[in-house]
């Protein structure tokens, strides 16, 4: 049933584009309708759009034959409508699509479904459908229902955003501490960099100096990048992070008793901070909790680093004491070097 409805939508969309008189001239006054219903772990978005105008908009970005590809319609909608649940962007999938007549005009009726981890306290919708490409005069009559509240707004070129709800301080702290933890444990390049630094450490004092230097440095650039005071191209940042891994791995390989200096950790920490900020750039940070969010995210990262150091450092000390296992550190460093080189090639080129 779903496939038949989707095919019907795409066939009619293509037909209207190719044979309707307006296929050669935009309406420039199209209307749309949105009903957004937020439930416990899902968000249902019923979107009604002028079928002819949708055909114009999609055709401007892709070949006409690609209009038959449902994924392209879905991608276009996700590119033009961004939804943030508690600052985290969620992406929708087409659940159902059909066509209906509204005021003697054919409208595409598309139901998008967005999966949520939990029911959000705040929802932000940025609507840019048609406004920057095919129809600057487009208007959408939107209704958002969430947690017993309802927000109604006419979305236009000048007013493109809907906000409903408010993130609590506790929710913000909890969310960003967990996000920081998740980011460090899934950021394998950061983990390998820290492990390589630990290969040159022999006591707690050295750990404190290296970790402190690294923490101060990446905290500085994390704040600067998130606040958009200083920004670097993501490709450059990711390539430099890979090179930082290559450098510390080479030092460990070619020095029998490597000892990384705090200035090395500080210098590369500045680069890693831009990398940490990358995930925040994809979010809509709540202005009321901006400082709390940044601090909580950083605490999550530091707590994650502390766990890594606590687990890895005792093992490194044990290896150093056992002469038969001395090969493990340079051998592991060679493996880390290989990862760093591969990442650099992938990211730089």
Q: What is the element string, with H for helices and E for strands?
A: HEEHHEEEEEEEEHHHHHHH
Q: Structurally, how many domains make up the residues?
A: 2
How much of the polypeptide forms β-strand, as a percent range?
15-25%
Number of strand segments: 10
Number of distinct helices: 10
- Which structural class fits the helix and strand makeup? alpha+beta
Shape type: elongated
The low-confidence runs, each spanning 5 or more residues with pLDDT under 50, are 9-26
Quick tags:
2 domains, 349 residues, 10 helices, six-stranded mixed sheet, 21% strand, four-stranded antiparallel sheet, alpha+beta
Please sum up the structure shown.
With 349 residues, this protein is of the alpha+beta class. The chain has ten helices and ten strands. The chain has helices at residues 2-19, 51-61, 70-80, 169-186, 188-198, 204-226, 234-254, 262-281, 290-321, 328-348; strands spanning 31-38, 42-50, 81-85, 88-90, 92-102, 105-115, 122-127, 139-146, 149-155, 161-165.
Task: Describe the overall structure.
This protein has a six-stranded mixed sheet. Strands 4-3-7-10 form a four-stranded antiparallel sheet. Helix 4 (169-186) packs parallel to helix 9 (290-321), helix 5 packs across helix 9 (290-321) and helix 7 (234-254) packs antiparallel against helix 8 (262-281). It has helices at residues 2-19, 51-61, 70-80, 169-186, 188-198, 204-226, 234-254, 262-281, 290-321, 328-348, and strands at 31-38, 42-50, 81-85, 88-90, 92-102, 105-115, 122-127, 139-146, 149-155, 161-165. It has 349 residues and is of the alpha+beta class. The protein has two domains: 2-165, no CATH class; 169-348.
